[in-house]
């Protein structure tokens, strides 16, 4: 049962564009009925239900009646309605697991991308910061220390001891001149140098921790990984044991309620008085849910075993790297530093692998916890299972198969099948469940027995639980294939569980048993060669088929005549485009002014000590002036008229 079901993930999880109108209608119905839904789950359910040709969604001649589309919308809403039903819980598990379980490399890349996104702003400040003064240089290298601690997982960047020890490791690698040279590098070279500094400084700190020197805040990753692996392993094993207890109970209850009518080639259901047919179908759906949980849990256990092998190899490499560095340090006078530093970088790469393992184990625990929480959400039907079991005993798969271990499949006159012994690595169909029980029991999951033998038909291998039905199957295999396909169309959770997506898609055009034939997906290698250029190409890049394109171009050219072209020198392009400015140099100039001149006059002498005698009679000049003034006042007015 540990084989992983490799379902076409993209075709089941991605929305189908052909169903977009129906999607909106389904969402409206869900909101009207207060049904909680997730869009990925709705896409998943629609892609599974669309494989039923009863709804005629992808028929070549689509029915004009809207009744088929209404039935499809109603079927989707019915599946999404009961949140605690085993069918919806199984579909939720499948949708979650297909969307969250990836390869180990993809999970590691996702972790690295998330870490780079968180430290992008810090790294950008380091490589883009222009340094002029010594204080700015110290500020840049303080950011470098934080970048190293965060990216390499060397402790808490808020702890002073962690930062101080990382600074000492950095100073042992880079001198003051090296730091000055680092800040003068361009953006690309500074980023490459920063990556090298990270690895070397982290390797020194890891080596100091292993040597017994101070390594404050650093976790012992090898020890943590061992503890985490053991914890994850025990949790998965406990979960698997709990699942198998449920599986054994439900399988035993269903086995006690059926009987084989080999004469009529059918399975008869014998139900107690207090058990209805719907209860019997609920137990079958519940068994499918726990079988799906079992498949996913075993897949996680297998992945954990593969991770354990990688962890052991990584630990051996870690010890070997440390030993080489110890030997190099002992003879450091004879070995140049350019040969020692790469050893620290190699040690850091192993350390980062340990961190990736921690992240992988964390992801596995999260997936396991989510799957367990989904199964716990399902309603309990233990009382119903015990009533169906009656007085029968609970049997495990091994106990049930041991009863038929002495029997073998046989075909006296094979028509369509052949019986072959089981071989290791043989690809089994239907997840090793009995084909006859699935077909006649309408989704009854009973494990097949490899001890009976393997039935090969159309290059595919199937198992049976009892030897008699192989004769019925050999007569008409397509009849039983159609019954299984028809059951999967009604119980869509079986499509992913039994890996039947391709079979249902290939049989979409056969809605009825008549003319049904299981088609196998065949591939072949084929080569096709064509002439390089059978017709000379003549492509006119300026050709426009629409006349309005020419009109728009004419308007654009006319508008250009009224525009003016300008250019702007930006900050980013200023360092890339050379430019120069011409100025006039300073020169000495002087101005000459007139000479100040003055005129010297004769100095007036003042006589002192002499008495001035006024004349007694008036002067003739004064008398004349007085007479002239009186005459002018009396003979003329202001206007000069007499």
From TrEMBL:
<dbReference type="GO" id="GO:0030030">
    <property type="term" value="P:cell projection organization"/>
</dbReference>
<comment type="similarity">
    <text>Belongs to the CFAP206 family.</text>
</comment>
<comment type="function">
    <text>Essential for sperm motility and is involved in the regulation of the beating frequency of motile cilia on the epithelial cells of the respiratory tract. Required for the establishment of radial spokes in sperm flagella.</text>
</comment>
<dbReference type="GO" id="GO:0005930">
    <property type="term" value="C:axoneme"/>
</dbReference>
<keyword id="KW-0206">Cytoskeleton</keyword>
<dbReference type="InterPro" id="IPR021897">
    <property type="entry name" value="FAP206"/>
</dbReference>
<feature type="region of interest" description="Disordered">
    <location>
        <begin position="590"/>
        <end position="609"/>
    </location>
</feature>
<dbReference type="GO" id="GO:0003356">
    <property type="term" value="P:regulation of cilium beat frequency"/>
</dbReference>
<keyword id="KW-0966">Cell projection</keyword>
<keyword id="KW-0963">Cytoplasm</keyword>
<keyword id="KW-0970">Cilium biogenesis/degradation</keyword>
<dbReference type="GO" id="GO:0036064">
    <property type="term" value="C:ciliary basal body"/>
</dbReference>
<dbReference type="Pfam" id="PF12018">
    <property type="entry name" value="FAP206"/>
</dbReference>
<protein>
    <recommendedName>
        <fullName>Cilia- and flagella-associated protein 206</fullName>
    </recommendedName>
</protein>
<keyword id="KW-0969">Cilium</keyword>
């Amino acid at each position: 049962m540990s084989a992983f079901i490799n379902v076409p993930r993209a075709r089941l999880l991605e929305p189908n564009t052909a169903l977009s109108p129906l999607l909106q209608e389904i969402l409206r119905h869900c909101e009207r009925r207060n049904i909680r839904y997730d869009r990925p789950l709705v896409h998943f359910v629609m892609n599974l239900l669309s494989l039923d040709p009863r709804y005629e969604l992808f028929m070549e001649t689509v029915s004009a009646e809207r009744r088929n589309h209404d039935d499809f919308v109603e079927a989707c809403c019915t599946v999404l309605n009961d949140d605690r039903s085993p069918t919806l819980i199984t579909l939720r598990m499948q949708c979650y697991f297909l969307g969250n379980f990836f390869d180990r490399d993809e999970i590691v890349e996702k972790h690295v991308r998330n870490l780079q996104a968180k430290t992008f702003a810090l790294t950008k400040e380091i490589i883009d910061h222009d340094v002029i003064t010594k204080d700015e240089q110290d500020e840049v290298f303080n950011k470098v220390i934080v970048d190293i601690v965060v990216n390499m997982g060397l402790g808490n960047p808020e702890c002073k001891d962690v930062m101080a020890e990382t600074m000492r490791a950095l100073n042992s690698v880079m001198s003051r001149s090296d730091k000055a040279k680092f800040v003068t590098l361009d953006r690309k070279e500074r980023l490459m140098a920063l990556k090298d500094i990270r690895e070397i400084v982290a390797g020194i700190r890891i080596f100091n921790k292993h040597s017994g020197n101070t390594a404050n805040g650093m976790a012992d990753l090898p020890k943590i990984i061992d503890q985490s692996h053991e914890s994850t392993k025990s949790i998965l094993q406990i979960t698997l044991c709990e699942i198998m207890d449920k599986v054994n109970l439900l399988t035993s209850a269903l086995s006690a309620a059926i009987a084989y009518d080999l004469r009529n080639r059918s399975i008869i259901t014998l139900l107690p008085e207090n058990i209805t047919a719907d209860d019997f179908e609920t137990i079958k759906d519940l068994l499918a849910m726990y079988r799906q949980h079992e498949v996913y849990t075993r897949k996680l256990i297998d992945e954990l075993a593969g991770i354990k092998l990688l962890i052991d190899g990584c630990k051996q490499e870690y010890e070997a790297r440390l030993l080489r560095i110890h030997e190099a340090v002992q003879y450091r006078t004879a070995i140049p530093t350019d040969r020692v530093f790469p050893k620290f970088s190699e040690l850091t790469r192993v350390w980062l692998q340990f961190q990736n393992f921690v992240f992988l184990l964390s992801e596995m625990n999260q997936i396991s916890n989510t799957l367990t929480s989904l199964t716990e959400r399902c309603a309990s039907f233990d009382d119903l299972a015990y009533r169906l079991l009656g007085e029968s005993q609970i049997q495990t798969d091994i106990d049930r198969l041991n009863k038929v271990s002495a029997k073998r499949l046989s075909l006296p006159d094979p028509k369509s099948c052949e019986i072959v012994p089981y071989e290791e690595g043989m690809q089994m169909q239907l997840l090793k469940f009995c084909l006859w029980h699935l077909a006649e029991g309408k989704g009854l999951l009973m494990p097949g027995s490899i001890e009976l033998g393997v039935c090969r038909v159309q290059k595919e291998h199937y198992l049976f639980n009892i030897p008699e039905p192989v004769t019925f199957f050999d007569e008409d295999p397509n009849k039983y294939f159609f019954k299984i396909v028809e059951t999967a169309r009604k119980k869509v959770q079986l499509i992913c569980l039994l890996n039947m997506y391709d079979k249902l898609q290939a049989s979409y055009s056969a809605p009825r048993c008549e003319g049904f034939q299981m088609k196998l997906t065949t591939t072949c290698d084929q080569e096709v060669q064509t002439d390089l250029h059978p017709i000379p190409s003549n492509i006119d890049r300026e050709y426009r088929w629409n006349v309005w394109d020419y009109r728009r171009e004419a308007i654009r050219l006319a508008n250009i005549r009224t525009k003016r072209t300008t250019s702007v020198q930006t900050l980013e392009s200023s360092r890339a485009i050379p430019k120069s400015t011409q100025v006039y140099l300073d020169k000495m100039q002087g101005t000459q002014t007139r000479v100040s001149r003055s005129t010297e006059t004769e100095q007036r002498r003042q006589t002192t000590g002499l008495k001035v005698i006024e004349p007694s009679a008036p002067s003739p000049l004064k008398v004349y002036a007085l007479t002239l003034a009186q005459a002018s006042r009396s003979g003329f007015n202001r206007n000069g008229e007499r």
